[in-house]
Specification:
single chain, 62% helix, 8 helices, mainly alpha, 274 residues
């Protein structure tokens, strides 16, 4: 903004309601002396960035395990029972560690209610997408799982964070995949796994303060699940985990040096209660 000089001897003051001989767009030479940069900025070190990124890769591993179980069920591979059983044991162990079994009766009641209602509704859910082609179902499921990962709440707030959108997208994707299974018990098992993976596990993971132990167990488990499918998929999984946990956090830390938020007298006035 160019400085405009006034011939008046009146001293310029930054008071809106006072009459002045200076033009409205007059800029005082000291205008930019009040500029402030990165007032609310808190730099993040490499260790913190890497540890925080494990929350994202943990949810990616959970999603990969879910897809692996679906493929095992689809191909009639009996190893899905082992994968499902190990993940269920992990959920139970997380409940025990988080001391959520102090009052076990309501928990058992909810579990029995879910089993009864879920198994009874599974035949209906299987027929919801009969008129949709399998290719469309797979494409829609992939998009929904990406929405789940993108909108998931990783222990922080944000404009695009919505746990409700994330959970609904995951459950909807699970229903779409379950509709492509032949047996009702397989479809029910997949829906039960979806509830454990996308509804129960995030709550337990947060209650356990996002422990790195869960990240390690689930990453290793997801890798072996991918190995049972194909070596190529396992390799792509490792590359994605490496990027999420190492490359992207380090790039974020490096890019902090270019952060330049400026604050000054041109900002809107803010009212604070004291």
């Amino acid at each position: 903004m160019a400085e405009k000089k006034s011939t008046s001897n009146q001293t310029w003051t930054k008071v809106l309601y006072q009459r002045s001989t200076y033009p409205d767009n007059y800029t005082d030479p000291k205008f930019l002396e009040e500029i402030k940069r990165n007032v609310h900025f808190k730099p993040v070190d490499s260790r913190t960035a890497v540890l925080k990124s494990t929350r994202i890769s943990t949810q990616i591993s959970v999603t990969v395990i879910f897809w692996a179980v679906f493929l095992q069920l689809k191909e009639g591979n009996g190893s899905w029972e082992l994968t499902y059983g190990m993940f269920s044991c992990l959920i139970v162990a997380a409940y025990v560690v988080s001391f959520r079994f102090n009052n076990i009766l309501p928990v058992l009641k909810n579990v029995l209610l879910f089993i009864a209602v879920g198994y009874g509704c599974t035949p209906v859910l299987k027929t919801l997408t009969d008129t949709i082609s399998t290719d469309s179902i797979y494409a829609m499921s992939v998009v929904l799982m990406l929405v789940h990962i993108g909108f998931h709440q990783y222990g922080m707030g944000g404009v695009c964070v919505s746990p409700y959108v994330s959970l609904n997208a995951a459950i909807c994707g699970a229903i779409c995949l379950a509709s492509r299974l032949q047996e009702t018990r397989h479809a029910f098992a997949l829906l039960a796994l979806a509830v454990q993976a996308f509804a129960l596990f995030p709550e337990l993971y947060e209650a356990l303060n996002y422990t790195p132990i869960a990240f390690t167990i689930l990453t290793v488990g997801a890798f072996f699940c991918m190995v049972s499918i194909s070596i190529v998929s396992a390799s792509l999984f490792l590359v994605s985990i490496f990027c999420v946990n190492i490359i992207f956090p380090l790039c974020f830390v490096w890019a902090q040096q270019y952060k330049n938020n400026i604050y000054g007298p041109w900002d809107e006035a803010m009212v604070f209660n004291r």
